[in-house]
Amino acid sequence: MGRSEIHAADDILDAARDILLERGVSAATTRAIADAAGAPSGSIYHRFGSRDGVLAHMWIRAVRRSQRVFLDALSTQEDPREAAVAAALSIFDFARDCRKDAQIAALFRREDLMREAPTDLAETLRALNEPVLRAVRRLGADIASASAPLDAVLLAVIDLPYGAVRRYLVRGHAPPPVLRPALESAVRAVLQSVTS
Protein backbone atom coordinates (compact mmCIF):
# COMPACT_ATOMS: atom_id res chain seq x y z
CA MET A 1 0.00 0.00 0.00
CA GLY A 2 1.40 3.42 -1.04
CA ARG A 3 1.89 6.35 1.26
CA SER A 4 -1.10 8.67 1.52
CA GLU A 5 -0.74 12.17 0.16
CA ILE A 6 -0.31 14.53 3.09
CA HIS A 7 -0.39 17.70 0.99
CA ALA A 8 -2.74 17.28 -1.97
CA ALA A 9 -1.53 18.59 -5.31
CA ASP A 10 -4.76 20.57 -5.73
CA ASP A 11 -4.16 22.35 -2.41
CA ILE A 12 -0.71 23.41 -3.58
CA LEU A 13 -2.00 24.49 -6.99
CA ASP A 14 -4.88 26.40 -5.38
CA ALA A 15 -2.40 28.21 -3.12
CA ALA A 16 -0.20 29.12 -6.09
CA ARG A 17 -3.23 30.32 -8.06
CA ASP A 18 -4.49 32.49 -5.21
CA ILE A 19 -1.10 34.08 -4.57
CA LEU A 20 -0.56 34.75 -8.24
CA LEU A 21 -4.00 36.32 -8.72
CA GLU A 22 -3.88 38.38 -5.52
CA ARG A 23 -0.24 39.48 -5.49
CA GLY A 24 1.26 38.78 -8.92
CA VAL A 25 3.69 36.30 -10.42
CA SER A 26 6.73 37.57 -8.54
CA ALA A 27 5.00 36.90 -5.21
CA ALA A 28 4.34 33.26 -6.14
CA THR A 29 7.64 31.95 -4.75
CA THR A 30 8.07 28.36 -3.69
CA ARG A 31 8.24 29.46 -0.05
CA ALA A 32 5.04 31.56 -0.32
CA ILE A 33 3.20 28.72 -2.05
CA ALA A 34 4.39 26.22 0.54
CA ASP A 35 3.34 28.48 3.41
CA ALA A 36 -0.10 29.14 1.92
CA ALA A 37 -0.65 25.42 1.27
CA GLY A 38 0.66 24.42 4.68
CA ALA A 39 3.21 22.17 3.00
CA PRO A 40 6.98 21.96 3.32
CA SER A 41 8.95 23.41 0.40
CA GLY A 42 10.50 20.00 -0.12
CA SER A 43 7.15 18.46 -0.99
CA ILE A 44 6.66 21.10 -3.69
CA TYR A 45 10.08 20.42 -5.19
CA HIS A 46 9.44 16.68 -4.97
CA ARG A 47 6.06 16.87 -6.68
CA PHE A 48 6.56 19.72 -9.17
CA GLY A 49 10.33 20.14 -9.51
CA SER A 50 10.39 23.93 -9.30
CA ARG A 51 8.24 27.02 -9.03
CA ASP A 52 7.93 27.05 -12.82
CA GLY A 53 6.72 23.46 -12.60
CA VAL A 54 4.03 24.51 -10.12
CA LEU A 55 2.91 27.36 -12.39
CA ALA A 56 2.83 25.11 -15.45
CA HIS A 57 0.80 22.44 -13.63
CA MET A 58 -1.54 25.14 -12.30
CA TRP A 59 -2.13 26.46 -15.84
CA ILE A 60 -2.57 22.97 -17.32
CA ARG A 61 -5.15 22.16 -14.64
CA ALA A 62 -7.09 25.36 -15.40
CA VAL A 63 -7.04 24.70 -19.13
CA ARG A 64 -8.13 21.08 -18.70
CA ARG A 65 -11.00 22.14 -16.46
CA SER A 66 -12.22 24.63 -19.08
CA GLN A 67 -11.78 22.07 -21.84
CA ARG A 68 -13.84 19.53 -19.92
CA VAL A 69 -16.69 22.04 -19.64
CA PHE A 70 -16.38 22.90 -23.35
CA LEU A 71 -16.37 19.25 -24.49
CA ASP A 72 -19.26 18.38 -22.17
CA ALA A 73 -21.27 21.26 -23.65
CA LEU A 74 -20.57 19.99 -27.17
CA SER A 75 -22.05 16.64 -26.25
CA THR A 76 -25.31 18.04 -24.82
CA GLN A 77 -26.87 18.82 -28.21
CA GLU A 78 -27.50 16.56 -31.18
CA ASP A 79 -27.82 19.41 -33.66
CA PRO A 80 -24.26 20.50 -34.57
CA ARG A 81 -25.13 24.22 -34.65
CA GLU A 82 -26.74 24.05 -31.22
CA ALA A 83 -23.75 22.07 -29.95
CA ALA A 84 -21.46 24.82 -31.28
CA VAL A 85 -23.51 27.51 -29.53
CA ALA A 86 -23.54 25.52 -26.28
CA ALA A 87 -19.77 25.03 -26.45
CA ALA A 88 -19.13 28.72 -27.14
CA LEU A 89 -21.37 29.78 -24.27
CA SER A 90 -19.67 27.28 -21.98
CA ILE A 91 -16.50 29.39 -22.28
CA PHE A 92 -18.44 32.43 -21.11
CA ASP A 93 -20.09 30.45 -18.30
CA PHE A 94 -16.76 28.99 -17.18
CA ALA A 95 -15.35 32.51 -16.92
CA ARG A 96 -18.23 33.43 -14.61
CA ASP A 97 -18.52 30.20 -12.61
CA CYS A 98 -14.82 29.34 -12.30
CA ARG A 99 -13.31 32.81 -12.55
CA LYS A 100 -9.99 32.00 -10.86
CA ASP A 101 -9.21 29.13 -13.20
CA ALA A 102 -10.42 31.16 -16.18
CA GLN A 103 -8.11 34.01 -15.14
CA ILE A 104 -5.14 31.67 -14.91
CA ALA A 105 -5.91 30.25 -18.35
CA ALA A 106 -6.12 33.79 -19.75
CA LEU A 107 -3.00 35.18 -18.06
CA PHE A 108 -0.44 32.79 -19.52
CA ARG A 109 0.38 31.65 -23.02
CA ARG A 110 1.30 28.05 -23.64
CA GLU A 111 4.40 29.10 -25.58
CA ASP A 112 5.71 31.10 -22.62
CA LEU A 113 5.19 28.18 -20.28
CA MET A 114 6.92 25.80 -22.69
CA ARG A 115 10.07 27.94 -22.49
CA GLU A 116 10.08 27.98 -18.69
CA ALA A 117 8.48 24.68 -17.69
CA PRO A 118 10.42 21.52 -16.92
CA THR A 119 11.16 19.44 -19.99
CA ASP A 120 8.92 16.59 -18.84
CA LEU A 121 5.92 18.92 -19.29
CA ALA A 122 6.81 20.03 -22.81
CA GLU A 123 4.86 17.27 -24.54
CA THR A 124 1.86 17.73 -22.25
CA LEU A 125 1.82 21.44 -23.08
CA ARG A 126 2.33 20.79 -26.78
CA ALA A 127 -0.62 18.36 -27.00
CA LEU A 128 -2.91 20.13 -24.55
CA ASN A 129 -5.29 21.64 -27.10
CA GLU A 130 -5.56 18.55 -29.30
CA PRO A 131 -8.84 17.20 -27.82
CA VAL A 132 -10.58 20.53 -28.40
CA LEU A 133 -9.14 20.94 -31.90
CA ARG A 134 -10.27 17.44 -32.86
CA ALA A 135 -13.76 18.14 -31.53
CA VAL A 136 -13.96 21.47 -33.38
CA ARG A 137 -12.81 19.82 -36.63
CA ARG A 138 -15.55 17.20 -36.27
CA LEU A 139 -18.03 19.94 -35.47
CA GLY A 140 -16.98 21.90 -38.55
CA ALA A 141 -17.50 18.84 -40.74
CA ASP A 142 -20.95 18.33 -39.20
CA ILE A 143 -22.02 21.96 -39.54
CA ALA A 144 -21.08 22.74 -43.09
CA SER A 145 -19.80 21.36 -46.32
CA ALA A 146 -16.16 20.53 -46.79
CA SER A 147 -15.69 23.95 -48.38
CA ALA A 148 -16.46 25.72 -45.10
CA PRO A 149 -13.22 26.90 -43.53
CA LEU A 150 -12.26 25.55 -40.15
CA ASP A 151 -11.25 29.11 -39.28
CA ALA A 152 -14.89 30.22 -39.38
CA VAL A 153 -15.91 27.48 -36.93
CA LEU A 154 -12.97 28.37 -34.69
CA LEU A 155 -14.06 32.00 -34.83
CA ALA A 156 -17.55 31.07 -33.65
CA VAL A 157 -16.75 28.60 -30.90
CA ILE A 158 -13.31 29.72 -29.67
CA ASP A 159 -12.30 33.23 -30.75
CA LEU A 160 -15.57 35.06 -30.09
CA PRO A 161 -16.17 33.67 -26.59
CA TYR A 162 -12.55 34.04 -25.50
CA GLY A 163 -12.49 37.55 -26.90
CA ALA A 164 -15.67 38.37 -24.99
CA VAL A 165 -14.28 37.25 -21.62
CA ARG A 166 -10.54 37.87 -21.76
CA ARG A 167 -10.48 41.61 -21.09
CA TYR A 168 -12.57 41.11 -17.96
CA LEU A 169 -10.49 38.19 -16.73
CA VAL A 170 -7.15 39.97 -17.07
CA ARG A 171 -8.59 42.79 -14.93
CA GLY A 172 -9.72 40.26 -12.32
CA HIS A 173 -13.44 40.39 -13.03
CA ALA A 174 -16.03 37.97 -14.32
CA PRO A 175 -17.69 39.04 -17.56
CA PRO A 176 -21.07 40.70 -16.98
CA PRO A 177 -24.09 38.46 -17.62
CA VAL A 178 -25.56 41.04 -19.99
CA LEU A 179 -22.91 40.05 -22.58
CA ARG A 180 -24.09 36.45 -22.83
CA PRO A 181 -27.07 37.07 -25.17
CA ALA A 182 -24.92 39.30 -27.39
CA LEU A 183 -22.26 36.60 -27.56
CA GLU A 184 -24.88 33.99 -28.46
CA SER A 185 -26.17 36.22 -31.28
CA ALA A 186 -22.65 36.75 -32.62
CA VAL A 187 -21.88 33.02 -32.53
CA ARG A 188 -25.13 32.20 -34.33
CA ALA A 189 -24.41 34.86 -36.97
CA VAL A 190 -20.97 33.40 -37.73
CA LEU A 191 -22.37 29.87 -37.89
CA GLN A 192 -25.12 31.06 -40.23
CA SER A 193 -22.55 32.66 -42.52
CA VAL A 194 -20.64 29.37 -42.71
CA THR A 195 -23.63 27.42 -43.99
CA SER A 196 -25.39 30.01 -46.14
Automatic annotation (TrEMBL):
Chain residues forming the annotated DNA-binding region: 29-48
Domain HTH tetR-type intervals: 6-66
Membrane-spanning ranges: none
UniProt keyword list: DNA-binding, Transcription, Transcription regulation
Pfam family, any one: TetR_N
Statement: the UniProt record of this protein carries the keyword Transcription regulation: yes
Xref: PANTHER family: HTH-TYPE TRANSCRIPTIONAL REGULATOR BETI, HTH-TYPE TRANSCRIPTIONAL REGULATOR RUTR
Protein name: TetR/AcrR family transcriptional regulator
